[in-house]
Amino acid sequence: MLDRCRRGDSKAQFEIYRLYYKAMYNSSLRIVGLTDAAENIMQDSFLSAFSKLNTYRGEVSFGAWLKRIVINNSLDYLRKKKVVFEELHENLPVWDEKPSEIENITIEEVKSAISLMPDGYRAVLSLVLFEGYNHEEVSRILGIRNVSSRTQYSRARKKLQELLIEKRNEKFREKIYD
After folding, report:
1. Could you give the CA distance from residue 123 to residue 129 in angstroms, rounded to a whole number?
2. Angle 38-39-41 from CA coordinates, rounded to 5°
3. In a domain, 113, yes or no
């Protein structure tokens, strides 16, 4: 199918788009946090991928190659918004364990909480937690030091935990007063 795409076959391109668009949109959305921006980034990434398909060497899966384009475009979007990735120096605990307060969290609750996070936190958290990058890779991608990636990730996880607990408490209060 990729050979047909290289020859400009629009049906093959649509088939590739159909196979990957949801995953690519979700990857972008996790990083930029805005549905319209994620949609535009995803569309631009497909256009870019199709126009540069001759550079795809098959060293990684096509999906991984495409996802890298989406992630780079998403991070470029954040850079254009002048998102600052903090240079941090202290080491913080990775997660304050309070299992009784964060048990049985749904995917929707996590997505909702992540959407409320500052751009820098959301980007680092998404790159490590969802996209599978390690801190060395994140530091190279974002142009920050490794310790800064780790600390920002730690703070992002702590913020996520706080938001999840806050959401749970809001739901609990709503049940009491209903």
Report:
1. 10
2. 65
3. yes
> Is the domain of 8 the same as that of 73?
yes
What is the dihedral sign for C-alpha 162, 82, 149, 63?
positive
Q: Classify burial at 89, counting beta carbons within 10 Å of its beta carbon; exposed 0-12, middle 13-18, buried 19 or more.
A: exposed
Residue 73 corresponds to which amino acid? Answer: N
Domain membership of residue 22 as a residue range: 2-80
The pLDDT tens digits of the residues spanning 103-137 come to 677 778 888 888 888 888 888 988 998 888 899 98
What CA–CA distance (Å, rounded) separates 95 from 155? 9
User: 33: alpha, beta or left, given left = phi > 0 and alpha = psi -120 to 50?
Assistant: left
What is d(CA 176, CA 178) in angstroms, rounded to the nearest whole number?
6
State the Cα–Cα distance between residues 153 and 124, nearest whole angstrom: 6
What pTM does this model have?
0.70
User: Which residue among 17, 49, 80 closes a domain?
Assistant: 80
CATH code of residue 147: 1.10.10.10
